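Q: Please design a sequence for this.
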């Protein structure tokens, strides 16, 4: 067992605005200089950072990182950890779970990647989620009730998200779920060593404590009709999920020991399956296939298993393994195949590395062509061929290479090639493509007061389902209030609210209807403050990267298991950051598109035109003002602004 070593930077860590060979100046049309000055003066423009633009749940990532690092101060009497957690959970009520399992597209989009390495956003989220559970933080209950009732079908991430948001708005919410416990794929898909059940239960209970009711073991479409549900409620949200797996569509793919990933993981998470065959082959390439492979590695096999112990019987629900038998289990040989090369697999890179360390054989560029069976009909091997795979028009195209077939022996074959929605009793909702059609507000097409979200719209990440739920909740709230549903913004994420911050500090506020030349005498904001967060993601080219020094990432401790250590090891592998580490990691955030009070503009202004706002009137986003009588438009403040918050305008 060992920890993942630090990565060594692969390129020089020197920032230069101009590189060797550059010979063309910037476009003078953007500068409009007359001798040493121009008529343009600083404007203060808040933009969306790419981390937030990449977050499917729309978290205000920059906001809570600025709280953790100490730039934005919490209200009096509130710990910074709580304030950051409350900012985070405005979008995502499950930060401790998502901090563990989200593949973090926010980190892929992080502008700091252009400097050296992304900010560990996921790890800070993990820390805040753990702190909240440890300190028993609760969501504030609404002061009043609207008297409206909403039915939520499905207790997975989409259903929990919409229930949370609607309950906060004062609506009476009931979740209907066909299973015994809430959580959906977070509970029945992802193994417990990635999402500890006590953590999942704590974050779900916090949502239920808002007054959300549940009806478990109740399937809509069979136990209760959709028509009954609509008659008894003012609105309905469908978070059906996609918990039916897709079998292998090849000859022999109906063998009893050729099962789907969802069925496999459910049997494991239910506690019914405690060992597998000696040779397990997983077909996939995404995160689910990695989960199946690592679970199989941990379960191992029993040398002389009885027919009743065969894993396919347990997965099908015909039997359950005896807990006493697990003492005799031995390691399983696990092979994972993907149509894409290993370096192009969709699974999280970190999870791939962990699987390889555990001795799982990952073979890329292979497509299944047949399942070989013995006289009893059970699968004995998976026949594969080398292939070329690519995405074309959103569809996967796979071209097998003739003459490259080979057989991989298997006692159990698991298909992790996708998921499907079970529309039993709800067939009228199927759009013919295995999903439910909806608009950008996630309102079901042609169905009044019915909304939808999660994998039933488009199978994707857990955090995507959370985002769907939040957007749908906004639409439901407006419909129930008799208001028109607004068009969603181009960049549909949570962002920093300067007005709220001013109210927190007790500063007078006003409404600014449009750009003004100098707003130092207005209670609205700083000079020509403009919020472009709903339509502009700021790229690294707008930042002054020379301000930032190389700072290695503060990494969570991740336990890497060997092949032998993985057997029967169901302990959590990813440990949260310590408080000091979380703060240090947050300080690596470059606060793209918003001031983080570095003082560069004040220090470098040759005219002393840029100055700090008096402390009594200052707050985050309202740190500096400009004396336009002194400003000559030299652009220095813009050039040295690390975050791209200062732009030049006013004269156009």
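A: Design:
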């Amino acid at each position: 067992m060992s920890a993942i070593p630090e990565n060594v930077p692969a390129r020089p860590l020197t920032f230069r605005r101009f590189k060797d060979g550059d010979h063309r100046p910037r476009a003078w049309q953007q500068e409009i200089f007359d001798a040493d000055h121009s008529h343009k003066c600083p404007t203060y423009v808040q933009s969306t950072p790419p981390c937030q633009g990449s977050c499917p749940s729309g978290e205000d990532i920059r906001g809570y990182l600025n709280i953790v690092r100490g730039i934005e101060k919490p209200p009096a009497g509130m710990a910074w950890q709580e304030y950051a957690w409350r900012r985070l959970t405005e979008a995502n009520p499950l930060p401790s779970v998502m901090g563990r399992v989200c593949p973090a597209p926010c980190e892929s989009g992080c502008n700091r990647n252009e400097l050296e390495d992304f900010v560990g956003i996921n790890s800070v989220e993990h820390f805040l989620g753990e702190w909240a559970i440890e300190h028993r933080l609760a969501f504030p209950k609404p002061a009043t009730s609207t008297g409206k009732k909403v039915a939520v079908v499905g207790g997975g991430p989409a259903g929990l998200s919409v229930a949370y948001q609607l309950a906060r708005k004062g609506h009476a919410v009931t979740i209907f779920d066909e299973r015994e416990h809430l959580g959906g794929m977070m509970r029945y898909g992802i193994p417990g060593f990635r999402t500890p059940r006590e953590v999942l239960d704590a974050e779900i209970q916090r949502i239920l404590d808002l007054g959300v009711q549940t009806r478990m073991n109740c399937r809509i479409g069979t136990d209760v009709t959709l028509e009954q549900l609509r008659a008894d409620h003012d609105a309905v949200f469908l978070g059906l999920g996609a918990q039916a797996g897709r079998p292998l569509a090849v000859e022999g793919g109906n063998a009893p020991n050729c099962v789907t990933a969802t069925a496999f993981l459910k049997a494991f998470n239910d506690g019914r399956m405690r060992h597998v065959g000696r040779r397990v082959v997983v077909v996939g390439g995404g995160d689910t296939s990695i989960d199946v492979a690592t679970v199989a590695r941990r379960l191992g096999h029993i040398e002389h298993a009885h027919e009743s112990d065969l894993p396919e019987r347990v997965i099908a629900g015909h039997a359950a393994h005896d807990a006493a038998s697990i003492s005799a289990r031995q390691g399983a040989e696990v092979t994972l195949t993907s149509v894409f090369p290993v370096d192009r697999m969709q699974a999280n890179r970190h999870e791939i590395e962990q699987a390889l360390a555990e001795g799982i054989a990952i073979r890329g560029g292979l497509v299944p062509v047949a399942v070989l069976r013995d006289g009893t009909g059970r699968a004995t091997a998976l026949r594969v061929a080398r292939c070329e795979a690519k995405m074309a028009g959103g569809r996967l195209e796979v071209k097998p290479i003739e003459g490259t077939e080979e057989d991989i022996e298997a006692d159990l074959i698991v298909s992790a090639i996708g998921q499907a929605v079970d529309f039993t009793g709800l067939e009228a909702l199927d759009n013919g493509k295995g999903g439910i059609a909806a608009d950008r507000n996630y309102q079901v097409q042609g169905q009044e007061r019915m909304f939808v979200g999660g994998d039933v719209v488009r199978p994707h990440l857990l955090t995507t389902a959370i985002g769907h739920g939040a957007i749908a909740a906004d639409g439901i709230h407006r419909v129930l209030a008799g208001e028109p549903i607004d068009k969603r913004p181009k960049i549909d994420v949570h962002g920093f609210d300067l007005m709220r911050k001013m109210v927190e500090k007790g500063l007078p506020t006003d409404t600014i209807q449009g750009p003004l030349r100098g707003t130092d005498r207005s209670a609205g904001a700083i000079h020509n403050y403009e919020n472009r967060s709903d339509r502009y993601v700021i790229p690294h080219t707008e930042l002054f990267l020379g301000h930032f020094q190389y700072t290695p990432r503060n990494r969570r401790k991740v336990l890497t298991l060997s092949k032998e250590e993985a057997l029967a090891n169901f302990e959590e592998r990813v440990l949260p950051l310590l408080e000091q580490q979380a703060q240090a990691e947050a300080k690596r955030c470059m606060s793209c598109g918003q001031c983080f009070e570095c003082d560069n503009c004040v220090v470098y202004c040759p005219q002393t035109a840029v100055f700090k706002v008096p402390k009594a009137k200052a707050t985050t986003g309202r740190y500096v003002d400009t004396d336009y009588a002194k400003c000559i438009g030299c652009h220095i403040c813009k050039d040295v602004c690390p975050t791209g918050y200062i732009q030049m305008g006013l004269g156009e």
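Q: Thanks. Anything notable?
A: The longest helix spans residues 462-480. The two ends are 62 Å apart (CA to CA).
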